[in-house]
Write a structure and sequence with these properties.
Dihydrodipicolinate Reductase, domain 2, alpha/beta, binds (2R,3S,4s,5R,6S)-2,3,4,5,6-pentahydroxycyclohexanone, disordered N terminus, Rossmann fold, 6-stranded parallel β-sheet
Length: about 350
């Protein structure tokens, strides 16, 4: 197998051209340097073909394995629905191809652990998991601030995660596994420790949420050191996309995600604009995430969130789903962290 470093431009297969895959393919074409989309894969042949036709030198496939076997494919970006991730990641690992896998790594901790084990057998990291908030300049500054120790030991984290609306098929469990998964990762990353228990509380549902959906939800995460993180997750807030976080430490507090401006004063009022969705709010973070992945892959390295991070987030979300259903605090069941991820 030729090393990915053997090509000056990384040929990427994009698996799944729904909202996220299409946005990433456009990003690889227009924004990221050092890569180009040489293959797109979608279970719907027509959609794959239509998409490939719009990109120079790109071939359409319906099977990930066929794309991964192509000579012009050096790396794989997985943006298909979560249940399809395991097979695609394992296929890429079998060929030692660099992978960027959108979250969730897989839908449940047992299958996520199988991916971790496959990478362990390979003996080196090849997978970056798509927790893009780590690449958001504000979140990155928050992390650096915590590293300085100026805020003292972090005691609490307050997260707000509001979507204007979610698709009609979005379930109450998905508010945890698809949305709160980001806060789980950010909490683990900012505090540099594991989440040990989850409690999900349900306020009365918003009348704007689809009938029968528990929306919003309030999630409490406990960590190894005894810090607490709360998450307001609101799938149908109606007014825009807002993601905010505040760390409260022993000697100070810091928050990110207040709207970036401009703050406009006119006609006796002041105000600003709220971004409509995550594609716009985190566009810069996605750009940086993909560029980092491409840069690393072209030099044979793998950086960023690991399969362990993907597995740990899935294990925490799994506890969250159980807590939501059973109405009680649920301890997170986590395997021992292998040396490759320490
Ligand atoms: C979506 O899948 C994302 O990953 C977004 O970042 C998140 O805000 C949204 O709630 C999820 O559905």
């Amino acid at each position: 197998m030729s090393a990915p470093t053997s090509r000056s431009v990384l040929g990427v297969a994009v698996i799944g051209v729904g909202t996220m895959g299409a946005d990433h393919a456009r990003r690889l074409r227009d924004v990221v340097s050092g890569a180009r989309v040489t293959a797109v894969v979608d279970t719907e042949a027509e959609r794959a073909k239509e998409f490939a036709d719009g990109l120079d030198g790109c071939t359409a496939y319906t099977e990930p394995a066929a794309a991964m076997a192509a000579r012009d494919v050096d790396a794989v970006l997985i943006a298909s629905p979560g249940p399809a991730h395991e097979e695609a990641v394992l296929g890429a690992l079998a060929r030692d191809l660099p992978v960027l896998c959108e979250k969730p790594l897989t839908p449940d901790p047992v299958s996520a652990l199988r991916v971790v084990e496959a990478e362990l057998r390979l003996g080196h990291r090849r997978v970056q998991v798509g927790f893009m908030r780590r690449y958001d300049p504000e979140y990155a500054r928050l992390r650096r601030l915590l590293d300085t120790g100026d805020l003292g030991r972090p005691l609490m984290l307050h997260h707000r995660h509001r979507n204007a609306a979610q698709p009609p098929w979005f379930t109450g469990d998905m508010l945890i596994t698809d949305s709160v998964a980001h806060e789980v990762d950010v909490t683990r990353w900012l505090l540099d420790e594991e989440v040990t228990a989850v409690t999900v509380l349900r306020p009365r549902p918003s009348a704007l949420a689809p009938e029968g959906l528990d929306d919003p939800q309030f999630v409490l995460l406990e960590t190894e050191s005894g810090a607490l993180a709360d998450v307001e997750i609101f799938g149908h807030c109606g007014f825009g996309y807002q993601v905010q976080a505040e760390v409260v430490g022993e000697r100070g507090a810091a928050r990110v995600g207040d709207e970036p401006g401009p703050r406009v004063s006119t006609a006796g009022r002041w105000g600003g604009r709220i971004t409509p969705d995550y594609l716009e709010r985190f566009a810069d973070a996605y750009d940086r995430e993909l560029q980092a992945w491409v840069d690393a892959a072209r030099t044979g390295r793998t950086t960023g969130p690991t399969t362990w991070d993907g597995y740990a987030a899935t294990a925490v979300c799994d506890a969250g789903v159980r807590s939501r259903r059973e109405g009680r605090r649920v301890a997170v069941d986590l395997a021992d962290r292998p040396a490759l991820y320490r």
